[in-house]
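Attaching the record inline, Q. Sequence:
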Amino acid sequence: MKRLEALNIVDYDPRQDGKVFFGAWVELENEDGDLVRYRIVGTDEIDTRNHHITINSPMARALIGKQVDDEVQVQTPSGLKEWYINKIQYTPFE
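Structure, as predicted:
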């Protein structure tokens, strides 16, 4: 029950438009043209089947504050990966 007592709902703020913050849906593309889509969520909301990643993940940390057409570099176990931001929105992709 401690988690519910400490619950903090983060509402969308129009000042977030065009930039990646908590709750954003982000579409990324690598140099090979591979596309991935992620939603940045809290640690208790991780759902890899639905591509929800935690705000504390290396990918999310690299994306925070970025905007469309920015490039992000993420250190992974298999080496440094580069991604380009194609889309940012605060509603699910269709």
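The domain at 18-89 is CATH 3.10.50.30 (Chitinase A; domain 3). The chain has a mean pLDDT of 86.

More tomorrow.
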